[in-house]
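check this:
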Amino acid sequence: MVTAECHAHIFMDGVDYKKAAAAHENGPREDLIREHLAAYQKAGISYVRDGGDPYGAGVLARSLAPEYGITYRTPVFAIHRAGRYGKIVGRAFSDWKEYCALVREVRRAGGDFIKIMTTGILDFATKGHVTSEPLSRKEVFAMTAAAHDAGLSVMAHVNGAQAVMDAAEAGVDSVEHGNFQNEESICCMAEHATIWVPTIVTVSNLLENGRYPAETLAWIFETQKKGLQLAFEKDVVLAAGSDAGAYGVLHGKGIREEESVMRKILGAENGQELEKRLAQALRKKQPLFVFHWRGGGLNRDTLQQLLALAGRLAAERGKRASCSVNFPQAVIQLEFSEAPQESITIQQANEAEDAAVPSE
């Protein structure tokens, strides 16, 4: 079971965007934010990654979150080009000078990363259409580089295959949504180690509510489903984020629905399939094998079993295996080297986990 919500908007409520936004117009509403944090706590979520807002709600949520046992991360606000999609979650820039000023403002406000909006959103009533003109490849490269130069990672709102390739090749750290991809864009994410947060529940939760044409929604869902399956095959690192707060996606409940849909699409990790993929990585002489755990409860015993499997396969090729894990995101990294001792390292732990321990 995942313990992280990797894409949320704390100021939205999943029911009525206009009403939710209006509630924060004169300043973030602490009572509403606490209500949403309590929903995450009840759902067993200990890490929330926010997608930004123009009201300061995410910043307030970050200060309140420890009371609920939650680590909260926010970009403060998302950054979009004036006249393009993004106003609902952030601030606009008209030229390069203004963009750089916004990056500096995020840093001053203690932002945990930069979020950029490179495209519009998918049109739920049309097959394959993305609203708003995408940013140019050159601009995406420059924006990403400036954020990295400021010491901040980049979360990128992206839809469409070419836009995803532009973002991945620019070096963004994660692609959010990523609808309407193809094999080339998915392979590009794999090549550049770009994390993909597909937020597929924003579509699946609409399939039967009559808000949009059923046939079109089914087509959009099937397209994203095939993309996820291909990404899994190509070893793209996937992270579960529901876009909580978006219509039909409730805080706390949304991430559990996202997890459920992803598990149904991808299937739980089984030992035979994992062994096959590990052996393939070793044949290709890959020094690292990174994947999102989908095999149920993730704990130290599971990691010991996984390390034993990886160690056996690595030994056949004169290597040793080491394992590191980010528990909240359920991301595991196996490293194959000539290190003298196999080990398990905890990158970000659950409360009950130690910092690091060598294998027996």
Q: What stands out?
A: Residues 351-360 have pLDDT under 50 and may be disordered. Residues 214-233 form the longest helix (20 residues). The first strand starts at residue 4 and ends at 8.
